[in-house]
Specification:
By secondary structure, the protein is α/β, with parallel strands linked by helices. About 40% of the residues lie in helices and about 20% in strands. Helix 4 links the parallel strand 2 and strand 3. The N and C termini lie far apart (about 40 Å).
């Protein structure tokens, strides 16, 4: 089993997001479908005021930032940070206002000389190698509320697990042990405890179940391999056609329970947590 290297992980993550950001944004996130229905819930829970200073951590292509921009006026401020230059270019193109700025920055090494009224992070916190460091920095920069959105457990988000379980079965060493994964905080108690450890209080947890139409199995497989699994797709394909077909057939069986008239409709659990 390979050893997890956080620096190599970050380099690979940046490279991957620079590749998939356009498809991720225009084919999914920007449409507010499936899990991205949570964007409105994140911003609603933040209770943003017109003059708030807001930080969007791991802002990606600016989906959350775009919604935040509707709630602040010329005296407010919005800053988004992300490691992906391609994602940030999409965000800047979408939001060209003088009080909205985006910076290429590692969430584990954020540095600002002022505090924020609200800090938001949608689908990013589970991927940071050192979550404690990110939250500790956020707490020191915050004078109001933080709101985090994460995906549920593997059982609650079958879009991910229907393919990933057979992948891990046939290629157990495909990622280093200890690597961050999408279900890291699927149990809301774990995220709540992480927030408490770094000094946050007044923690509120909301659980939402959305649905996502993944299309036919072939459409689902293609989209998954070229977006979610893009960073490991070559490793999967290098195992040879026999292994790939085994993974594909087991995934097809896994999604059969969610298939109606050849279309896959997944339930999708999202956990939104706020704290101060």
């Amino acid at each position: 089993m390979p050893v997890f290297d956080p620096i190599e992980y970050k380099i690979n993550s940046r490279t991957n997001w620079n590749t998939v950001a356009p498809d991720y944004h225009y084919g999914w996130a920007n449409k507010h479908v499936g899990p991205f229905k949570s964007t409105l819930e994140v911003v609603r829970m933040a209770e943003i005021n017109p003059q708030d200073k807001v930080l969007d951590i791991a802002c990606g292509t600016g989906v959350v930032s775009s919604e935040v921009s509707r709630h602040i006026d010329k005296d407010g401020l919005l800053i988004g940070v992300d490691m992906s230059r391609t994602a940030l270019s999409i965000a800047r193109h979408s939001l060209g206002k003088s009080n909205i700025n985006f910076f290429e920055m590692d969430a584990e090494n954020m540095a600002f000389r002022f505090t924020f009224d609200k800090i938001l992070c949608q689908y990013g916190i589970m991927f940071f190698p050192n979550v404690g460091k990110v939250l500790d920095t956020a707490r020191k920069m915050l004078k109001g509320k933080i709101v985090l959105a994460v995906h549920g457990t593997a059982e609650d988000v079958p879009y991910f697990s229907s393919i990933m379980r057979p992948v891990l079965k046939h290629i157990p060493d495909i990622r280093p042990e200890g690597s961050p994964n999408v279900h890291r905080f699927g149990n809301a108690t774990d995220l709540k405890e992480e927030l408490e450890r770094t000094g946050f209080s007044d923690i509120t947890v909301a659980r939402h179940v959305f649905s996502y139409d993944a299309g036919t199995f072939d459409e689902y497989w293609h989209d998954y391999m070229h977006s979610t699994a893009n960073s490991i797709r070559k490793k999967i394909e290098d195992m040879g056609n026999k292994i790939v077909q085994s993974i594909k057939e087991e995934a097809r069986q896994n999604v059969s329970v969610y298939t109606r008239e050849d279309r896959i409709i997944f339930p999708w659990t999202v956990i939104v947590v706020s704290a101060s």
